[in-house]
Amino acid sequence: MPVKTIEWANHSARIIDQTRLPTEIVYLNIETVEQMGEAIKMLRIRGAPAIGIAAAFGAYLSIRNFPSAQPKARFFDALNAAIEYLKSTRPTAVNLFWALDRMQTSAQSVQNEEIETIKRHLLEQALAILEEDRAICRQLAFAGADLIKDGSTILTHCNAGGLATSEWGTAVGVIYAAVEQGKNIRVFADETRPLLQGARLTTWELMESGIDVTLICDNMAAFVMQQQRIDCIIVGADRIARNGDTANKIGTYNLAVLAEKHKLPFYIAAPVSTFDLTLTSGEKIPIEERDPREITEGFGTRTAPENVKVYNPAFDVTPNSLIHAFITEKGVIKPPFESNFQKFFK
Ligand code: MRU
Fold it and tell me: For ligand 1, which residues put their CB under 6 angstroms from it?
């Protein structure tokens, strides 16, 4: 990976501002929970695992200056309020909720300690979430690389790369691992309307890593598949229900339908923290709707009439029947998903 997506440095969370890529490399030092909430909402940091890590640091930042002479109940009130605020920033990626629940449980496990000890414990927990993500992405990447034949061309959507995690990414991590295994791999990256994570981020990080990547508009995927230029599709995920229905960036479902038509394998790469086994199916996954201006005047150029009605869901749900396998750090999970998830995750 060409850059560090998020790290803890000089007493603050240092992130690369992804809204400025690929034209500028700008780092932000996040020092308050409000700054972290804003960064997550505005997609300065984005991608399911990365926002989980960011939220964990946000929770720590919310209490790090809490006066130790104050009653402990107030400390926990402040922490819990910050966690609720961070949970309200983006609804779909379950990694955000997973990381914040882990921070809350971790604080509760040392609730009888001094306030300063609880603070230290929370920082250690956020750092552990970051470090674990690095290891998880690598394990996942090499588990997935075994599915990829030498000479393959892979289509991916949005950015499920290093910029969406601590380091290697999920779907793009599989590509990095396949290349590291010595395979000759080419990538087609969907532009990913409306915020262009594919065009701005995936192509940038692959080019920086010296990997052969070709950018296409989202509406070109069918034609490219019909021309037999694609061998498989690999994407990331924001939340996977118990039956395998999967929420990911809007446009993922289109690709899954097209993959079936063209008899191409369609893989989801995601860490265990992206599985939400409390939800029976994809219908229950909350789908974020974003500002209409992302469609009508994204990147500062008006492209639709003033006051036009707009629907802007940020994610869609791919039915389990269109998914060939899930690539996780624990290995590759094939259908039947519901029963195999139980075996993998017990
Ligand atoms: O809105 P974004 O950019 O946060 O959406 C990101 C995605 O949909 C990714 O594919 C997903 O989070 C997986 S990241 C490894």
Answer: 43, 46-49, 93, 158, 160, 164-165, 169-170, 197, 235-238, 248-249, 314
CATH code reported for the domain at 6-138: 1.20.120.420
CATH code matching the domain that covers 142-345, chosen among 2.60.120.1440, 3.90.380.10, 3.10.20.90, 3.40.50.10470: 3.40.50.10470
Beta bridge partners of 16: 27
Which residues are annotated as catalytic?
A: 238
- From ligand 1's centre to the CA of 120, what distance in Å? 30
Successive 10-residue mean pLDDT values, the chain, 346 residues: 89 98 97 98 98 98 97 98 98 98 98 98 98 97 98 98 97 98 98 98 98 98 98 98 98 98 98 98 98 96 97 98 98 97 89
CA distance 329 to 53: 17
State the distance from the centre of ligand 1 to the C-alpha of 95, rounded, in angstroms. Answer: 11
**Ligand 1 centroid distance, CA of 43 (Å):** 10
Residues 134 and 54 sit within 8 Å (Cβ to Cβ): no
Q: What is the number of the ligand 1 atom nearest to the C-alpha of 171?
A: 15
